[in-house]
Structures are given as structure tokens and as C-alpha cells.
């Protein structure tokens, strides 16, 4: 089942896809990151850094198709 995501969550996924764990997550995404972690779309790579899971990548590919 594919979760319904807000436009802000999609933007956060796009940012994470672009930068991955190479940069700390911007504070503007802090609440969204918590939700995405709970949905299993991202994982904690290090303190204040996250990256996409396979499910997160699938959500983005569905958005672009």
C-alpha cells in the first residue's frame, strides 16, 4: 500500500534523494522527517542525516512516472 503524502513530504523526499546523507537535513523538514522515518520511506544514516529506503525511492519514481 502506498501512503498518501503531502506536497511538503514529497519535497523532503526530493531533497533527500538529491543530497542523501551528505548533508544534514534542513530544520524545515524536521517534522516531516519524523513521519517519513515512521513510514519506512527513509532511514537514519547518522545523527541529523537520513537517506531513502527502497520504498522511498519507489514513491519518488511513482511521482515522476
Structural class: alpha+beta
In what range is the share of β-strand residues? Answer: 5-15%
Radius of gyration: 11 Å
CATH superfamily: Winged helix-like DNA-binding domain superfamily/Winged helix DNA-binding domain
- CATH class category name: Mainly Alpha
In terms of quaternary structure, what is this?
single chain
Shape: globular
The profile of the biggest β sheet is: 2 strands, antiparallel
Distance between the termini: 17 Å
The strands making up the biggest β-sheet line up spatially as 1-2
Q: In percent, how helical is the residue content? A: 40-55%
Description:
The chain has 65 residues and is an alpha+beta fold. It has one domain (7-64): Arc Repressor Mutant, subunit A, CATH 1.10.10.10. Helices cover 52% and strands 14% of the residues. The chain contains three helices and two strands. Strands 1-2 form a two-stranded antiparallel ribbon. Strand 1 (42-46) and strand 2 (49-52) form a beta hairpin. The protein starts with 6 loop residues before the first helix and ends with a helix.
Amino acid at each position: 500500500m502506498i501512503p498518501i503524502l503531502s506536497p511538503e513530504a514529497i519535497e523532503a523526499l526530493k531533497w533527500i534523494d538529491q543530497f542523501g546523507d551528505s548533508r544534514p537535513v534542513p530544520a524545515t523538514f524536521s517534522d516531516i522527517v519524523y513521519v517519513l522515518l515512521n513510514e519506512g520511506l527513509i532511514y537514519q544514516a547518522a545523527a541529523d542525516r537520513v537517506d531513502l529506503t527502497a520504498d522511498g525511492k519507489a514513491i519518488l519514481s511513482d511521482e515522476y512516472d
